[in-house]
Amino acid sequence: MQDAELCKGLLQRILPDLEIDHIEYPELQKAIGPDADAKSVREEAKKYG
To answer: Which residues, including other chains, have CB under 8 Å from residue 10's CB and lie 6 or more apart?
Structure first.
């Protein structure tokens, strides 16, 4: 529900004992892309013996 007033009205009808002051929307997850200046790391392990 992107309409805050509509959402508030619906919640107020569902939860009449709760006084709703305002509606906040959480920020969506953001994709983390590779940075152009990023350097890769290479790890190697050798077994001796």
So the answer is: 1
